[in-house]
Design brief:
Strand content: under 5%
Radius of gyration: 23 Å
Oligomer: single chain
Number of strands: 2
Distance between the termini: 39 Å
């Protein structure tokens, strides 16, 4: 579980990789709105086919996509069971003691789980085809209007960038701490529930101390370099909108219109 695979960039030469990160973020948000408004099989088939086409266009290995969504499979299973047993609309299909399964519950479990699965694949796709630096620069440019009204737009984007870089580092720290605790006899996977919960406390405390140490070191490094925010800051690779970005925006708009017509 500590091997973080969500959001790992996969290098490839594809139209989706070369697309401007700002356009990818906006199109993803529009696509997610469309996905969560799906209410029928035809709409679901359309968005699933669209996301499948994006996967082919991105030239990302199927193993990378599966690895990126695998940690969230348990969430999808819980969501499916919750809708299956607690949605009471429609006819009763089966009864399991105090719980009953209805036709509406089966439909809701299938629809909601499929919607979340499509949304997760679409969300992982933008992370698989966009580097953290490109995402940070895109958020910096998208939040730059906030700086004109006195809000820290660049600082918010920088915090987002640092967050993405800290996640894998803290995962490695947690793995090292767990190994150290195991060598000292602190077995985390044995005993009852209460013992396992108590054994996690030293790991959390050590991980918190490590995170604060890294944050303090980063703050000192920024202060030593006289960092003053994004005022006058330039980028090595300037992002520009062109014909591919216009085509992506038009394709996304066409998909939303098609979903509205089907609905």
């Amino acid at each position: 579980m500590l091997r973080i695979s969500i959001g790992q960039y996969v290098a490839a030469d594809s139209p989706l990789h070369r697309l401007d990160a700002r356009v990818k973020i906006v199109c993803l948000l529009a696509l997610l709105v469309g996905v969560f408004c799906v209410s029928g099989a035809a709409q679901l088939a359309l968005v699933a086919a669209s996301v499948a086409g994006l996967l082919l266009l991105a030239r990302v290995p199927a193993a990378s996509v599966i690895a990126s969504v695998r940690p969230l499979v348990a969430f999808l299973a819980v969501l499916s069971l919750f809708n299956l047993f607690f949605v009471r609309t429609g006819d009763v299909v089966a009864e399991l003691g105090p719980l009953s399964i209805t036709s509406g519950g089966i439909a809701a479990a299938a629809l909601y789980t499929a919607r979340f699965a499509v949304a997760l694949v679409a969300g992982s796709l933008i992370l698989l085809t966009t580097t953290p630096t490109q995402l940070a620069d895109a958020f910096d440019r998208m939040l730059s209007p906030l700086s004109r009204i006195g809000l820290p737009g660049h600082e918010i984007a920088m915090v987002f960038s640092l967050m993405m870089r800290f996640v894998p580092m803290l995962a490695d720290e947690a793995s090292a701490i767990i190994d150290a605790q195991s060598l000292r006899g602190g077995a985390l996977g044995t005993g009852g529930v209460a013992r396992r919960v108590r054994s996690i406390v030293p790991v959390v405390v050590a991980l918190l101390a490590s995170g604060l140490r890294h944050a303090d070191g980063l703050a000192r490094a920024l202060d030593a370099r006289c960092y003053e925010g994004g005022k006058g800051r330039t980028h090595l690779h300037e992002q520009r909108l062109g014909a591919p970005e216009l085509a992506a925006a038009l394709a996304t708009a066409a998909l939303l219109v098609a979903l509205a017509l089907l609905g």
